[in-house]
Amino acid sequence: MIEVGHNQNIIVTQHFKERLKERGIDLDFSKLNIEIIRKMPHYIDNGCYKYLDHKNQVIYYVRKVRNCYKLETIIKTNPIQMLRNLCDAHRMLCESIYHPNNTCKYCKKWTFNNICRDHIFETCIRGEKCKFNHVDLPK
User: Could you give the 3-state DSSP secondary structure of residue 11?
Assistant: First the structure.
């Protein structure tokens, strides 16, 4: 049985539980609560919030239903897929918050093809001479 945090308004769907088992995802849900999830980078797709847990390489699909949060499903990613999703999340954040104010904070920096993958995996030896963006994943 999944026990998510303590006294959290979280509903875990049967679909979520089935995907955990099907995809072989083994996480310690006792240390997870909605406040931790909501601090993760995310983007919205068809009314579903996709929270990106890059440390565990999973994406939580969450919907808010009245005063509860519903964990709809979970998918496992690889590091490059996660980086693509993080780029999408930063682009959507920039478009929804900064562009209306005629500023751009993330688009150029978080364009997938401009990011140094070696830096992400801590293997870049070019340092200051690297022509790609050195971005750090959220802590």
Answer: strand
Give the SS3 label for residue 73: strand
How long is the chain?
139
With contact defined as beta carbons under 8 Å apart, do 132 and 119 qualify? yes
The pLDDT score that the predictor gives to residue 102 is 78
Q: For residues 57 and 1, what is the distance between their CA atoms, to the nearest angstrom?
A: 22
Q: Which long-range contacts (CB under 8 A, 24 or more apart) does 91-99 make?
A: 92/43, 92/44, 93/43
Q: Strand pairing of 58-65 and 48-53?
A: antiparallel
d(Cα 8, Cα 96) in Å, to the nearest integer?
Answer: 29
54-110 pLDDT, tens digit each: 989 999 999 988 888 899 999 999 989 999 999 989 888 888 877 877 778 777 888
Tens digit of pLDDT for each residue in 27-47?
887 777 888 888 899 998 888
Q: Which of 137, 16, 23, 19 is nearest to 80 (CA)?
A: 137
